[in-house]
Design goal:
The chain has 207 residues and is mainly alpha-helical. It is built from 9 helices and no strands. Helix 2 packs parallel to helix 4.
């Protein structure tokens, strides 16, 4: 019983500790690419995925001109996204690495090309099809220029304003008609049937 309680306490403390971890606001400029990659991997092992992502992206920002560092950081990001089942993001990173190897066939470390193939095989086939279909649809869709987008937005706002003005005018007209009806005197509807019958009787008596 005591052993179970101790284990539960350790797990709870670990949960609190991991939950309190935050993404670093600033990353020292003195860290080189290797140190940043290591920090990213350490945070990945601790399930601090946001922090790990920031370290790997920092490698791309600071040392992206070096093909080796770029490929390693891209691979680590893809591996990180795959772990979180962010399949589209993982797919994009691995496919970019494959495209780099296709365009630069020599001078690159061969390990990441092999690793990418292994990682891509872990993505469910239906997810890959879904991702590729979505990309194909986006490519086939007509691309809207900034001018066209601005004109469409202006037209949308104009139509919305016109609809609003029409609704306001209709409401004003309804209120005006209601006010006129209240101010009009009651109409003379003529003698009622009882009055007509009394008049007939009176006329008969006079005769």
């Amino acid at each position: 019983m005591k052993k179970t309680t101790i284990i539960a306490g350790v797990l709870f403390a670990a949960t609190i500790f991991f939950g309190c971890q935050t993404v670093p606001k600033e990353i020292s400029e003195e860290l080189d690419a290797r140190q940043l990659i290591q920090l990213g991997q350490d945070n990945y092992d601790l399930h601090h995925y946001k922090a790990a992502e920031k370290y790997f992206n920092t490698v791309l920002e600071r040392y992206g001109d070096d093909p080796k560092h770029y490929l390693e950081a891209k691979y680590e990001l893809g591996h990180l996204y795959l772990k979180q089942k962010k399949y589209a993001a993982a797919y994009d990173n691995f496919k970019e690495i494959e495209e780099i190897y296709a365009s630069v066939p020599v001078g690159l470390p061969g390990s990441y090309k092999i690793l990418c193939g292994i990682e891509l095989a872990k993505i469910p086939p239906e997810k890959i099809k879904e991702i590729e279909d979505r990309k194909k649809a986006a490519q086939e869709a007509p691309q809207e220029t900034p001018e066209e987008r601005a004109a469409r937005e202006a037209e949308r706002k104009k139509a919305a304003q016109k609809s609003h003005e029409s609704a306001v005018n209709e409401q004003i007209e309804r209120e005006k008609n209601a006010a006129q009806k209240q101010s009009e005197p009651p109409k003379d509807e003529g003698p009622s049937e009882v009055q007509e019958e009394a008049a007939t009787v009176e006329a008969a008596e006079e005769r």
